[in-house]
Amino acid sequence: MKVLVPVKRVIDYNVKVRVKTDGSGVDLSNVKMSMNPFDEIAVEEAIRMREAGTATEVIAVSIGVQQCQETIRTALAMGADRGIHVKTDEELQPLAVAKMLHAVVGHEQPGLVLLGKQAIDDDANQTGQMLAALLGWPQATFASKLAAGDGGLTVTREVDGGLQTVWVKLPAIVTVDLRLNEPRYASLPNIMKAKKKPIAGLTPEDLGVSAAPRLKTLGVAEPAKRQGGAKVASVQELVDKLKNEARVI
Ligand code: AMP
Q1: What pLDDT, on the 0 to 100 scale, is given for residue 4?
Q2: What are the extents of the domains in the chain?
Q3: What confidence tens digit (pLDDT) does each residue in 146-164 have?
Q4: How do 9-11 and 33-35 pair as beta strands?
Q5: How far, in Å, is the centroid of ligand 1 from the Cα of 36?
Q6: pTM of the model as a whole
Q7: In CATH terms, is domain 2-244 a member of 3.40.50.620?
Q8: Which of 7, 8, 99 gets mutated to test ligand 1 (max ligand atoms within 8 A of its CB)?
């Protein structure tokens, strides 16, 4: 079974995000970019499935600017077998990404698509669900445990009330949550080996999909600055402040 893992290049999670002065978006100039952390977890899980013999090939696919190739190389250095880069400079939104992944699935015929539950830049949490709808495949989102068997996957999902276990028939879409695994670091020999692994280049036109955005960003603003805290000398003072300053009791 082939496993397709879509990996998104996003602003690194350690970077303090700055909003552009004109409020049109986030400033990405000279900012460290990395693979979306949930996608690293998806790559790790796919490699573990291949190591366990439930998957035969792991294909990392990234859609976006030229530098997405670095993100694919990271997946290849972790252990993915080959990459696909769909190159576009358009501002990407989940529906366009899902449509392009739909077309890639048509070419590759994977038995499983493992995505991150959300990308940490736009926090959309939509692509996996939209892809499942376009394909008409079963989906299991927010996976924290996967086990293959009976022509399908048993997936433990992290839901508000705790954990839910579902079984999905393959082919299926699974989106992964934080506690599924701890991704491995790529070793130096594997980084070197990854340079020789193939990355196929495509464009949205090759896939017959328009990458043009459908939503317009009206404005981006930083969250309001928090007021500094204060120490109170007594419970009486606290109650007084809650009543008369914060007006919450
Ligand atoms: P989102 O719906 O934007 O929160 O993204 C959910 C998941 O979809 C990500 O964790 C990735 O697995 C995948 N994804 C989103 N955008 C891209 C992209 N441009 N290239 C590859 N995969 C993507």
Answers
A1: 98
A2: 2-244
A3: 999 888 999 999 999 999 9
A4: antiparallel
A5: 8
A6: 0.92
A7: yes
A8: 8
